[in-house]
Amino acid sequence: TFGATSNTRYQQDAATTIASTTLFTAGYGNLYLEPTNTAARTYTGQGPITVQTDLDVNPTAAATNRGLLFDLGGALTVTGTTTLRAQSSATSSINTVNASNSVTSGHLDIQTNGELTTVGGAPVTLNGTDGTLFTMGGGTFNHDTISTLYMQPNSSVILTSGAITFANLQFNPTITAERTYTFGSGAITVNGNFRISPSSASAVGLNVLLGANLTVGATTTVSLTGAVASSTLNTTSSNYNLTTGVLYIPAGSGQLIANGSNITAPSTVSLPFNTETGNGRLLAGTSTFIYNGDGNITIATSTYYNLTTNPSISSAGRTYTTAGAITVLGALDVN
How many CA atoms lie within 13 A of 154 on its CB side? Predict the structure, then answer.
């Protein structure tokens, strides 16, 4: 049995198997992978690994091409912080190897020469209840197109530090009180889908605040799982911009507070801004909604402040059609 404050250190300058914790009472306390490498080395997980406090992957090398690769052999669960960093000329990497080797950690910190790679859609879940959940300090987050990073603390937290690109990003906590998730100041890019979907047994909400511009390649969904929770995406008074292929707010679920931001849909899908009838809504503020997809586009029934259509058209026959009555409180610009 390892206590939560105990330290286990693997320092072998050789291929090494990291013992699984399936036979341990509670898992490692703190786990350090810290060899001084004379060549590239691979540490391989024997099976599922649980760390009660922190995991620190921190090799040292006097020359390049002497990195440490930690290949998972099962699920990795870390209660505290998973840190990927390196000393001198070394590099440090964790690879999930396959889809079933998930990574769950309170916090994730990827520093210079650190790298996390997910394979086959292996999920990464961050559930820390304080501090910053994901710090990108100059390292690399590699992911395939089907992988999703989940953030789900039942707490108000800072989500990110540094500019980060995700494949897919989802906030799906079960909340027991009003919670606020705040992005840090680095620009956020989601190549696939971004989904806000809290659940709760009581009438409480999850409020997500932008801290920089947000770009989503596919669909941004502001919704919920439970029948009484609410979800809000807020561009804040700093008027950070949202660019998304599709903005979807299902009926009765959530809202976008657009403030004075630009909300842009470059998508060619028929209805890029989709707010179903019901309680799901857009609060336009003094924002500008920009439709610029090179296709036949339906403009959603809504109240806009400024509304702009300015596509770069590649061929004749493009038509923009209103879905119904629209109200523009400010300027209408067809360009």
Answer: 9
Distance CA(209)–CA(234), nearest Å, equals 5
Residue 50: closest CA among 11, 80, 93: 80
Can you tell me which residue has the tokens 């870390």? 78
What does the alpha-carbon distance between residue 69 and residue 120 come to, in Å, rounded to a whole number? 18
pLDDT, tens digit (0-9, with 9 covering 90-100), for 113-152: 999 999 999 999 999 999 999 999 999 999 999 999 999 9
Report d(CA 92, CA 138) in Å as an integer: 13
Residues whose CB is less than 8 angstroms from the CB of residue 33 and which lie 6 or more positions away in sequence, other chains included: 10, 18, 43, 55, 56, 57, 58, 59, 68, 70, 92
Write the burial class of residue 138 (CB in 10 Å: 0-12 exposed, 13-18 middle, 19+ buried). Answer: exposed
Order of strands across the sheet with 87-88?
Answer: 36-37, 60-61, 87-88
Structure tokens at 296: 């036949």
Q: What pairs with residue 289 in β-bridges?
A: 263, 307
Task: Name every residue whose Cβ is closer than 8 Å to that of residue 317 and which is 6 or more positions away in sequence.
Answer: none
